[in-house]
C-alpha cells in the first residue's frame, strides 16, 4: 500500500545512520529516501535542508548516465541502431569511430576517463563546444574491449548519438521519453527552485567554499542533471520493477547484467549497460553513484529484497556515500525482510510431461514449471549448470542466465508424440541416466560392477 511506512525502529536506525554520516562527513546537508513495492516508504534529511527534504534539489552527477543509457537502449529496441554498431556509423565525425555502442555503454571501449583541457566539471561547457572537443587528439587509453575503464567522454558521445537519431537536444529527448512518463518533474538541467547550494568543505577546518555549477555542454549526458530524492525514488522504482512506457522489462534486465569485468582492486564491482553492479553483504545490488563539485549522490536497489535507496548531499568530498546507501539497504532488508507473494497454482498443466527429473549423462537435473510456461533447470546433486528459461512462440525455450544464457531448449518427440528427450544447446537430457538417443551411443552391455 502506498501509505505503508517502515517500522519505527527501522526509521530510527536509518536516521541514526544518516545523521552519523552527516556529522562524520561534515556535509552541510544530506537527504535520503527508501522505496519499496513501487512506493516511497521513508524520507529524511539532516542539516540545512529546510522543511522539504524530499523536494530539495541536488546535482546527481553520474547517475545521469543511467538515463542516457536508457535513451540509447530505447533506440536499439526501436531498430534504429545495434549495440554492435561502431559509433562512427552514426556519428561520422567522431573518433575513434570504431568503438561499439555497447563498449561505450559498458566503459569497455578504452577511452580516456576525462575530456581534455581544464577540469570539465568546474568549467563551462563552451570550452568544449562539440563532440570532437570532448575526446581530443589522443582519446584512447586502452585497447578496446580488453578491460573496464570508466569514461565520461564516452557518455558525451552517447548523448550526441541520441541527439543525432532523435533530431532534438538530449535533454528534450530525456524529458519526452523518461521524465514526463515517470512524473519526474523536478529532474533536469536546471536546478529546482528549492535546491541546496554546492559546497567544498575545508579538509582541516569547519569552513565552506562555494562550488560552481556550470552547464557542461556536450558533456551534459555524462553528469549534469539536477534532481530530488522524491524524483530519484521514482527512478529507483523503475530500476526495480521497470515500466513498459519507458523500457521493456527484458531490456532493463539486459542493462543489469555485468558486461565489463571488475577491476582487481574491487572484485565485487562490475558494470552492465549503464548500470553499476555490486555484491555487498551477500546481496546483488544495481544502481549508480554520482559526484560533481559540490555534490555527491548514490542510488542502489536490491531486487531480491525489493528495496531501493537514494542518498544525496551537497559537499564535494568527505562522505562515503556509496557505503552509506548500501548500509541503508541492509538496515531495511535485515529489519524488515521482504514478505513473499502468496503461492498460487499458475503452471501450465500441459507441461507436466516435461516436469521433474532428467539426466545429462549420469548427472541428475530437474525441470520445474514456473509462472505459466516459464521453466527452471536446477541440479539435484553436486555442481550443475542451472538456468531459468523463457518460453518462445515456436515452442522452444531460451536460457536466461548462467552457462545456458541464450541457448535453446527443444522438446524432442517420437512419431507417436511421446517425449524422448530434451535438447538444450546440443546437450541431451534423458529421463534415466544414459537412456535414449545419447550422443556417442551407449555400451550394449549396459551398467555393470566392473
From TrEMBL:
Protein's UniProt keywords contain Hydrolase: yes
Sequence ranges assigned to domain Beta-lactamase-related in this UniProt record: 19-324
Record Gene3D superfamilies: DD-peptidase/beta-lactamase superfamily (3.40.710.10)
Molecular-function GO terms, alphabetical: hydrolase activity
Domain DUF7586 residues, every copy: 348-431
Record Pfam families: Beta-lactamase, DUF7586
Keywords, sorted A to Z: Hydrolase
Keyword Isomerase in annotation: no
InterPro entries cross-referenced by the UniProt entry: AmpC-like, Beta-lactam-related, Beta-lactam/transpept-like, DUF7586
Recorded coiled-coil stretches: none
Annotated PANTHER family: D-ALANYL-D-ALANINE CARBOXYPEPTIDASE, D-ALANYL-D-ALANINE-CARBOXYPEPTIDASE/ENDOPEPTIDASE AMPH
Protein name in the entry: Serine hydrolase
Protein's organism: Virgisporangium aurantiacum
Amino acid at each position: 500500500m502506498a501509505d505503508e511506512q517502515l517500522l519505527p525502529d527501522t526509521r530510527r536506525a536509518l536516521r541514526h545512520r544518516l545523521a552519523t554520516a552527516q556529522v562524520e562527513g561534515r556535509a552541510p546537508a544530506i537527504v535520503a529516501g527508501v522505496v519499496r513495492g513501487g512506493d516511497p516508504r521513508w524520507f529524511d534529511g539532516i542539516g540545512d535542508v529546510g522543511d522539504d527534504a524530499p523536494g530539495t534539489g541536488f546535482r546527481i552527477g553520474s547517475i545521469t548516465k543511467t538515463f542516457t543509457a536508457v535513451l540509447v537502449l530505447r533506440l536499439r529496441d526501436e531498430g534504429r541502431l545495434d549495440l554492435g554498431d561502431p559509433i562512427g556509423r552514426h556519428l561520422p565525425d567522431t573518433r575513434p569511430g570504431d568503438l561499439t555502442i555497447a563498449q561505450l555503454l559498458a566503459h569497455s571501449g578504452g577511452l580516456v576517463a576525462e575530456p581534455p583541457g581544464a577540469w570539465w566539471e568546474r568549467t563551462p561547457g563552451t570550452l568544449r563546444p562539440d563532440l570532437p572537443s570532448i575526446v581530443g587528439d589522443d582519446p584512447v587509453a586502452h585497447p578496446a574491449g580488453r578491460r573496464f575503464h570508466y569514461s565520461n567522454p564516452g557518455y558525451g558521445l552517447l548523448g550526441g548519438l541520441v541527439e543525432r537519431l532523435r533530431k532534438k537536444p538530449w535533454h528534450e529527448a530525456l524529458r519526452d521519453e523518461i521524465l514526463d512518463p515517470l512524473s519526474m518533474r523536478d529532474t533536469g538541467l536546471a536546478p529546482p527552485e528549492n535546491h541546496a547550494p554546492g559546497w567544498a568543505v575545508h579538509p582541516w577546518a569547519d569552513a565552506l567554499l562555494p562550488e560552481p555549477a556550470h552547464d557542461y555542454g556536450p558533456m551534459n549526458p555524462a553528469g549534469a542533471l539536477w534532481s530530488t530524492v522524491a524524483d530519484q525514488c521514482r527512478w529507483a522504482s523503475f530500476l526495480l520493477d521497470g515500466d513498459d512506457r519507458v523500457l521493456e522489462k527484458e531490456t532493463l534486465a539486459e542493462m543489469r547484467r555485468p558486461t565489463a569485468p571488475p577491476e582487481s582492486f574491487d572484485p565485487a564491482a562490475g558494470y552492465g549497460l549503464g548500470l553499476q553492479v555490486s555484491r555487498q553483504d551477500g546481496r546483488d545490488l544495481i544502481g549508480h553513484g554520482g559526484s560533481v563539485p559540490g555534490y555527491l549522490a548514490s542510488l542502489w536497489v536490491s531486487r531480491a529484497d525489493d528495496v531501493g535507496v537514494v542518498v544525496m548531499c551537497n559537499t564535494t568530498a568527505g562522505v562515503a556515500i556509496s557505503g552509506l546507501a548500501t548500509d541503508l539497504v541492509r538496515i531495511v532488508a535485515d529489519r524488515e525482510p521482504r514478505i513473499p507473494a502468496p503461492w498460487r497454482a499458475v503452471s501450465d498443466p500441459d507441461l507436466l510431461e516435461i516436469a521433474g527429473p532428467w539426466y545429462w549423462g549420469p548427472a541428475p537435473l530437474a525441470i520445474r514449471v514456473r509462472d505459466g510456461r516459464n521453466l527452471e533447470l536446477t541440479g539435484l546433486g553436486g555442481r550443475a549448470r542451472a538456468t531459468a528459461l523463457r518460453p518462445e512462440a515456436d515452442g522452444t525455450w531460451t536460457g536466461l542466465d548462467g552457462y545456458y544464457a541464450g541457448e535453446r531448449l527443444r522438446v524432442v518427440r517420437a512419431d507417436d508424440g511421446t517425449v524422448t528427450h530434451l535438447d538444450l544447446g546440443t546437450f541431451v537430457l534423458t529421463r534415466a541416466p544414459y537412456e535414449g538417443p545419447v550422443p556417442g551411443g551407449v555400451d550394449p552391455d549396459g551398467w555393470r560392477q566392473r
